[in-house]
Design goal:
Strand content: 15-25%
Shape: globular
Structural class: alpha/beta
Helix content: 25-40%
Number of helices: 12
Strand order of the largest sheet: 3-4-7-8-9-10-12-13
Radius of gyration: 19 Å
Largest sheet: 8 strands, parallel, barrel
Number of strands: 13
Oligomer: single chain
Distance between the termini: 39 Å
Length: 364
Amino acid sequence: MIRAFDTFSLPLLRWLDPEDAHRLAIQGLRLLPPIKLRPDDAKLAVRAFGLNFPNPIGMAAGFDKNAEVPDALLRLGFGFVEIGTVTPRPQAGNPRQRLFRLDRDEGVINRLGFNNDGAEAVLRRLASRAHLGGIIGVNVGANKDSPDRVADYVRLIETFAPVASYFTVNVSSPNTPGLRNLQQGHILDDLLAKVIDARERVREKAGDSPVLLKIAPDLSLAELDEVVQVARSRRVDGMIVANTTVARPSSLRETARAKEQGGLSGRPLFRLSTRMVAETYVRVEGAFPLIGVGGIDSGGAALTKIRAGASLIQLYSSLTYKGLSLVDGIKNDLASTLLRTGRESLSEIVGADAATVTAEDWPI
């Protein structure tokens, strides 16, 4: 059924403006009839951040910004779904056109700017489906015009703790002016201290809420040293590596469209984001798990990301080109790899190639 859905929908969606296509995809998922997939191979189960994931493949933040279809995505085979980015107040984002396909590169550029319905509306949707279970992360960010961005994150932690399986503190989007400055050492330390404190204040009533930090792939290694040091000292539960890049690889073929401002994702991000996963993995030294995201469009790419240091992975842009059947394809490839190599779980290969990857020439 999923393959048939892809066959019908992909040509139609690619014909539309990217943002209109995204809206149509959300509407289509809202109308999707219940699907009963076969259970995931038990070897694909992952325990991370105190949570039990049925498989390691998540829908990355940015697709379901407003928590409209998390359960449809879980039914389609994702092991977890991250909604958002959510801001305290509703936000229109940047002017359209703000989303661009790089077809020949299988990439996407966006400068959306945290467009979302705001915390109140998103909380209402998550609360109404909380009894259904499943791992739903909430990616949180600050309003563009906020006078106190740190306070925005604190408020969102307090608001969503009862319904969030985990939080992602997004300080790495390139599309909100000045947001990436929150990755600077002393500023990040203050932010994480207050976020963790907020999480602890509501723990008794809301339960445990793991806090993850999502970073940019454009950090220098010295900046990464500082970020990881702060993350470890503040005892975050994990990191997501990485967000979109403002860099434009020399290999891009869609040179005219590549000049658009915004963050680049999809296949062109794969090498850089994988390198950053490996660099982060060796610095974390097992203190907490990583989620790897950026350019994963096949089982081989997923395996590479895991061997670089990711315990879990996330997809988004590749679905534009490969369709939803990609999820099942990756799971089948990972399960086949474990069976062929005689391993019992993916945890046995996490970070196996990290040292090798960090010794390679820097991707350009």
